[in-house]
């Protein structure tokens, strides 16, 4: 997959692209990222890329022409898809990352700055707007890096063995099970016995349950879209049963405590 990034801050990408996983994917040829400075596509010798907003108000707006020139000069190769990183876009999801990785030879990513980009860029050369979340940022560069890193994890060369991506708990839409490494005791907290038991079937089952449990407790919204196997659905039912049992037990304790209280002061 080939990714072209257009930004007025190309230097922000240098170290990011040199880091291990993405750097490796780039040397094996699975992923190729080129970064272009928008100023090289400006119309004047001052390399101007911004101007005052029509209608007044504060701040500066990025001019349309440099963007349109840049995209048109890069979209020459076969199937190019032009993505504007923008708070107005659809939220990025793992499903969308997989679709983008599968369906595109060449992605062109546009990173805005200032108050934003002249609307006619979105109307002419942008195929899709994507957002990484609902918060205010200063530019689209970090969102572009988020997308590139997510896409790079779909490339065959990035993650050592192919099973690795498949085994990512997120592949199934679930959170990870808890991870532990040496030493066996930290601040009085022991590594769960099962992980040092050497019983691989028991470990697999414990991890599976922990994944389902963590997702249910911390991100129940993910369960709606998760593709759960039969085994996982059984674990989910079991965990929910345990929870309602302990809930019932807790309610019973409260009732009994209240009963005791009532005997102490029956007129309250
Ligand atoms: N942001 C909001 C509402 C209005 C403006 C912004 C905002 C960078 C050029 C866009 C932000 C968030 C997620 C790109 C935010 C993203 C951006 C992104 C982004 C400078 C104009 C701007 C309601 C979301 C808080 C600045 C909400 N994903 N404007 O941040 O580019 O990709």
Tell me briefly what this model is.
With 268 residues, the chain is of the alpha/beta class.
List the helices and strands and how they pair.
Layout lengths: L1 E6 L3 H8 L1 H8 L4 E6 L12 E2 L9 E2 L1 H11 L5 E12 L2 H10 L2 E6 L7 H6 L3 E4 L9 H12 L9 H6 L17 E2 L2 E2 L9 H19 L1 H4 L6 H35 L4
Parallel strand pairs: 1-2, 1-6, 5-6, 5-7
Antiparallel strand pairs: 3-4, 8-9
Helix pairs in contact: 8-10
Bound molecules: ligand 4FN.
Description:
By secondary structure, the chain is α/β, with parallel strands linked by helices. The protein contains ten helices and nine strands. The chain has helices spanning 11-18, 20-27, 64-74, 94-103, 119-124, 141-152, 162-167, 200-218, 220-223, 230-264, and strands spanning 2-7, 32-37, 50-51, 61-62, 80-91, 106-111, 128-131, 185-186, 189-190. It has a five-stranded parallel β-sheet. Helix 8 crosses helix 10 (230-264). The radius of gyration is 26 Å and the shape is elongated. The mean pLDDT is 91. The site of ligand 4FN has 17 residues, from strand 5.
Bound small molecules, which ones?
ligand 4FN
- Integer tally of domains: 2
CATH superfamily of the largest domain: SPOUT methyltransferase, trefoil knot domain
Query: What's the architecture of the largest domain, going by CATH?
Result: 3-Layer(aba) Sandwich
Q: Helix fraction?
A: 40-55%
Enumerate how many helices there are, as a single number: 10
How do the strands line up in the largest sheet?
A: 2-1-6-5-7
CATH topology name of the largest domain: Alpha/beta knot
State which percent range the strand residues make up: 15-25%
């Amino acid at each position: 997959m080939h990714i072209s990034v257009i930004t007025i801050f190309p230097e922000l990408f240098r170290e990011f692209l040199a880091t291990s996983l993405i750097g490796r994917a780039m040397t094996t040829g699975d992923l190729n990222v080129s970064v272009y400075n928008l100023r090289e596509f400006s119309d004047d010798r001052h390399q101007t890329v911004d101007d005052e907003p029509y209608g007044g108000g504060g701040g500066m707006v990025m001019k349309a022409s440099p963007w349109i020139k840049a995209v048109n000069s890069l979209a020459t190769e076969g199937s190019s898809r032009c993505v504007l990183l923008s708070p107005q876009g659809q939220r990025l999801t793992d499903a969308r990352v997989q679709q983008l990785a599968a369906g595109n030879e060449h992605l062109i990513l546009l990173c805005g700055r200032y108050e934003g980009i002249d609307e006619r860029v979105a109307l002419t050369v942008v195929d899709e707007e994507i957002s990484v979340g609902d918060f205010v940022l200063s530019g689209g560069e970090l969102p572009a890096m988020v997308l590139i890193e997510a896409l790079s994890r779909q490339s065959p060369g990035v993650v050592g063995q192919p099973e690795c991506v498949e085994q990512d708990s997120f592949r199934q839409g679930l959170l990870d099970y808890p991870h532990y490494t040496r030493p066996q005791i930290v601040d009085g907290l022991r590594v769960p016995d099962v992980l040092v038991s050497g019983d691989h079937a028991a470990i697999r089952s414990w991890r599976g349950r922990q994944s389902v449990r963590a997702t249910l407790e911390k991100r129940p919204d993910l369960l709606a879209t998760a593709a759960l196997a039969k085994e996982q659905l059984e674990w989910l039912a079991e965990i929910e049963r345990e929870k309602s049992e302990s809930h019932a037990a807790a309610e019973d304790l409260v009732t009994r405590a209240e009963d005791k209280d009532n005997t102490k002061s029956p007129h309250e």
